[in-house]
């Protein structure tokens, strides 16, 4: 039951298990040379066995000192350039070159390489005494050809010690200073291991050393008759695996971190050196993909559901390089993929992803980044670059040129697949890579197919080909990465299991990322606020009957856009930020405000700047939105608003937010996703969020930073239950409960035809014209125009809108189903083409003309805190339902309801839930305060708004305190944290206006 027996067990497994002709052998610790950090005898045995001619040349230069010089030269190279570079590139001196390792051949192109691969010497050294200063030792060190690469500190729980003791030992008993073996980049990784858990680090920094989890899941599952951590030596540390990691995964790189520099008064970039050792799930996904592709060949889809914190850029980089050198089996001489294309959804290429791909490049020119124009992309494809990095926007532009690439195979890796690869954009991508089929633009003469003689083709034939281009292509494999797959994504990219569910190929879950400390739980501190308002009317007879749905929308829009509402919300935000947020992350915390429109960005920023000045805060806010907004006779852009507020034109918004002068960012949709600023601690939400959008928006908070221990969400709009429902499907792995029913298309087609607005002949007529070679589109106008006139002749507006809704549903569903199913129904295709252009020609809906603004009493507005809560997610797989379209959804006539009842439904309750007795007491307090000469003197004197407000609040507390003995219930109610600010604010406004309560 001792640690020694644990060591022996692992050693016995490694030294007795053969894998592809390789196994470890045990080496005595006395053979380790501490000054050089090498097992000298192993190095020399490997070199002499594999490179005898090179060693003879070396001896000719150095004679009897040859061995000593070789070991010293090797040690110096490792110290200077790191173990990874030396293993991959070897060493050279005096014109003599030595390989220090031989990797497993991937193909049959070089048979003699296999023989050298089998001569690699893998060794286990137990209790390796590494120190030049003492007799400290590492429990177990694994070496490749005499070069130490992996250290393990082992603990056996049966002796009362666990992984935490191992971590403490590394941090406080192994000072890396002046110890050759403990220097950064000298070894690939150090593991800490007990019977149940594994941790790792690639950089020893004394007490600052950070160990990361290296478990198979959040906890390791029980293994029958073995240790829970047996995967470490059976999978990760096996000879084949270690050599694979050295060759294809281990990576020396630098990450650029931007931070504010007080001395220079600007944002500076700091380089951070990293040695990346693949995490368990990263190794697992790449190796599983590698094995599955060898079975599948090309033409398949793979969904990788890896959440934030998974190290996605590295996984994509490793996969891209893996695909470029993938063969069906070791005897093959032709690669599975000719070209690998990495597609990112961002218009500006992801710099981190692009850098990772370049860092992994071991041969210059393998990676080609398309960062200029479409011609650059065409040239890269024509040259057949191994890896091409581009954005989704460039594929549509070069669709015709890409069709000329025949007989080529492609692996396409898509970053954030849900936003790039559903809808019409994916068809452009598939069409651009299609080798056999003509493009949608059929002006060019069709090419013969499969060697047949060219025949005259009518529009029916062309439609059939167009259908085929939408299906899966045999020469293209797609690999989609996302943490939040939608139902469409799961059906298109997922794999069907035995239960008929569509599941990801591989998952790294939100739950695991949070548990392992790579991201923060954004639902842990969630505070909803509610706003209420009342109806302004003289008597009950003034109540109006109005369409409920429209009035609700008008009411909410009016109230939430009103300056008074925005004023109150901004006051609540700044109160939270000043009293709580600004103290977080060692005083560096930032906040994001998410509002419902670009106009609200302008309104909120104007009000926030005003209140920040009133409070004399030493910082202000920035705003981010696309395009321009017209408001009160002026045109506003993010650039004009931010520059007017002190941000230099040359400074970007992300850099500006790092400036201590700007600590809050107001957004509507821009920066709501894809913006990674670890200093954002708090989010104020004033926008309806649902599904994936809610997850992506709130996840702007989850990035880790030094000193950041939690996050905070204050939400004015969304119900806590709705947020939980949005997050739940993505907390663990997600599956689709079934596949989309294609018969729904036929049902929708039947509903469309019931309106009798067009005939089959008219559809055929339009499609025939559509597919003809033409310069102009004038002939397409007449058949569509006739249908539009018939639609306009329908007297019932609800019927017209019902027709519009059905054809929209049909087009959406057909566009989706045609990507995932290989069905060929020419009539459905013709109908799709016809309806696609018909819906564009239908006149747009008329806007609402309801005016209910005079009916709302804004003096009654209340925005009240409900209370902070922790939102919890269930530990279960997330289920999504397949896509479904209902043509009649939302087309029923709206119910008519009384205006006051509508407001009641919007509010749910009125006021602050105060009793009538409480209102009497409040009125008395207000009268006494407003009539007090002392209060009037201060409030009418030359004092700042902030000082007046503070004085008013203090005086109110003094008056409330008088009730503490006689009416404690009232005192407790009005002094509660959620009611006191609202009451004080309302009374103050009444006083300044000179009104009574």
Automatic annotation (TrEMBL):
Keyword Nuclease: yes
Keyword terms, alphabetized: Endonuclease, Hydrolase, Nuclease
Keyword Hydrolase in record: yes
Annotated source species: Lacihabitans soyangensis
Annotated Gene3D superfamilies: 3.90.1570.50, P-loop containing nucleotide triphosphate hydrolases
Annotated PROSITE patterns: HELICASE_ATP_BIND_1 (PS51192)
Annotated protein name in UniProt: Type I restriction endonuclease subunit R
Lineage: Bacteria, Pseudomonadati, Bacteroidota, Cytophagia, Cytophagales
A single GO molecular function term of this UniProt record: type I site-specific deoxyribonuclease activity
A Pfam family matched in the record: T1R_D3-like
BP terms from Gene Ontology: DNA restriction-modification system
Domain Helicase ATP-binding: 293-503
């Amino acid at each position: 039951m001792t640690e020694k027996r644990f060591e022996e067990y692992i050693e016995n497994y490694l030294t007795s298990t053969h894998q592809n002709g390789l196994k470890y052998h045990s080496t005595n610790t006395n053979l380790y040379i501490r000054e050089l950090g090498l097992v000298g005898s192993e190095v020399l045995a490997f070199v002499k066995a594999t490179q005898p001619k090179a060693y003879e040349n070396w001896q000719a230069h150095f004679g009897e000192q040859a061995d000593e010089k070789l070991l010293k030269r090797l040690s110096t190279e490792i110290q200077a350039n790191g173990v990874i570079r030396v293993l991959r590139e070897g060493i050279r001196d005096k014109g003599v070159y030595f390989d220090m390792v031989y990797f497993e051949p991937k193909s049959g192109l070089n048979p003699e390489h296999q023989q050298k691969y089998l001569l690699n010497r893998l060794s286990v050294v137990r209790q390796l005494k590494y120190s030049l200063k003492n007799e400290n030792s590492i429990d177990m060190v694994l070496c490749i050809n005499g070069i130490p690469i992996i250290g393990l500190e082992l603990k056996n729980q049966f002796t009362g010690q666990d992984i935490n003791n191992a971590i403490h030992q590394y941090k406080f008993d192994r000072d890396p200073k002046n110890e050759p073996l403990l220097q950064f980049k000298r070894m690939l990784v150090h593991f800490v291991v007990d019977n149940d858990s594994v941790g790792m680090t690639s950089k020893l920094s004394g007490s600052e050393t950070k160990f990361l989890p290296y478990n198979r899941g959040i906890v390791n599952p029980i293994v029958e008759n073995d240790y829970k951590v047996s995967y470490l030596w059976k999978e990760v540390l096996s000879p084949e695996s270690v050599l694979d990691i050295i060759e294809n995964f281990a990576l020396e790189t630098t990450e650029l971190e931007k931070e504010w520099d007080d001395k220079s008064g600007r944002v500076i970039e700091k380089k951070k050196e990293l040695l990346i050792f693949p995490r368990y799930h990263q190794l697992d996904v790449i190796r599983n993909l590698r094995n599955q592709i060898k079975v599948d060949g090309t033409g398949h889809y793979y969904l990788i559901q890896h959440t934030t914190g998974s190290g996605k850029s590295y996984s994509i980089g490793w996969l891209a390089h893996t695909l470029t050198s993938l063969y069906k089996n070791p005897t093959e001489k032709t690669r599975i993929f000719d070209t690998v294309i990495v597609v990112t959804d961002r218009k500006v290429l992801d710099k981190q992803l692009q850098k990772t791909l370049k860092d992994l490049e071991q041969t210059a020119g393998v990676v080609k980044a398309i960062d200029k124009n479409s011609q650059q992309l065409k040239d890269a494809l024509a040259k057949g670059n191994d890896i091409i990095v581009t954005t989704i926007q460039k594929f549509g532009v070069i669709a015709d040129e890409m069709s000329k690439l025949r007989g080529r195979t492609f692996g396409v890796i898509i970053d954030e697949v849900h936003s790039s690869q559903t809808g019409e954009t994916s068809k452009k991508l598939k069409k651009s890579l299609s080798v056999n089929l003509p493009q949608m633009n059929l002006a060019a003469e069709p090419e013969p197919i499969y060697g047949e003689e060219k025949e005259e083709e009518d529009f029916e034939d062309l439609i059939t080909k167009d259908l085929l281009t939408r299906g899966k292509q045999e020469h293209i494999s797609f690999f989609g990465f996302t943490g939040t797959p939608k139902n469409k994504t799961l059906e298109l990219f997922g794999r069907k299991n035995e239960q008929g569910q569509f599941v990801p190929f591989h998952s790294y879950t939100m739950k695991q990322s949070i548990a392992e400390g790579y991201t923060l739980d954004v639902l842990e501190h969630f505070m909803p606020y509610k706003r209420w308002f009342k109806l302004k009317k003289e008597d009950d007879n003034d109540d109006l009957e109005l369409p409920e749905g429209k009035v609700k929308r008008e009411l909410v829009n009016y109230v939430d856009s009103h300056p008074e509402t925005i004023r109150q919300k901004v006051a609540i935000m700044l109160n939270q930020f000043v009293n709580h947020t600004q103290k977080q992350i060692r005083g560096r915390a930032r906040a994001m405000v998410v509002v419902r429109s670009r106009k609200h960005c302008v309104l909120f920023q104007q009000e926030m700047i005003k209140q920040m000045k009133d409070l004399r805060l030493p910082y202000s806010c920035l705003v981010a939105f696309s395009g321009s907004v017209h408001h009160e006779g002026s045109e506003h852009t993010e650039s004009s608003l931010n520059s007017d507020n002190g941000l230099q034109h040359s400074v970007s918004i992300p850099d500006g937010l790092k400036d201590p002068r700007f600590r809050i960012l107001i957004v509507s949709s821009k920066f709501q996703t894809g913006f990674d600023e670890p200093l954002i601690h708090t989010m104020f939400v004033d926008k309806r969020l649902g599904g994936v959008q809610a997850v992506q928006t709130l996840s702007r908070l989850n990035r880790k930073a030094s000193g950041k221990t939690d996050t905070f969400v204050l939400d004015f709009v969304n119900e806590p239950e709705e947020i939980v429902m949005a997050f739940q499907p993505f907390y663990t792995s997600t599956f689709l409960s079934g596949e989309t029913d294609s018969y729904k298309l036929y049902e929708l087609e039947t509903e469309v035809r019931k309106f009798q607005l067009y005939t089959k002949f008219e559809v055929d007529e339009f499609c025939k014209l559509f597919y003809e070679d033409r310069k102009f589109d004038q002939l397409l106008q007449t058949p569509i125009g006739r249908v539009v006139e018939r639609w306009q002749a329908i007297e019932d507006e609800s019927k017209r809108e019902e027709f519009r809704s059905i054809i929209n549903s049909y087009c959406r569903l057909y566009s989706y189903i045609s990507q995932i199913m290989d069905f060929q129904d020419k009539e459905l295709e013709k109908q799709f083409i016809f309806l696609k252009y018909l819906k564009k020609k239908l006149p747009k809906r008329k806007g609402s003309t309801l005016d209910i603004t005079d009916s709302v009493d804004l003096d009654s507005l209340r925005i009240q805190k409900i209370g902070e809560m922790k939102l919890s997610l269930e530990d279960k797989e997330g289920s999504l339902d397949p896509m479904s379209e209902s043509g009649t959804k939302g087309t029923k006539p709206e119910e008519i309801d009384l205006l006051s009842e509508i407001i009641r439904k919007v509010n749910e309750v009125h006021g602050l839930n105060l009793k009538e007795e409480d209102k009497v007491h409040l009125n008395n307090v207000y009268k006494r305060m407003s009539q007090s000469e002392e209060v009037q003197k201060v409030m009418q004197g030359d004092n700042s708004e902030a000082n007046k407000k503070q004085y008013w609040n203090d005086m109110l507390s003094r008056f409330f305190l008088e009730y503490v003995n006689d009416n404690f219930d009232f005192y407790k109610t009005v002094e509660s944290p959620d009611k006191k600010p609202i009451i004080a604010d309302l009374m103050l406004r009444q006083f300044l206006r000179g009104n009574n309560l």
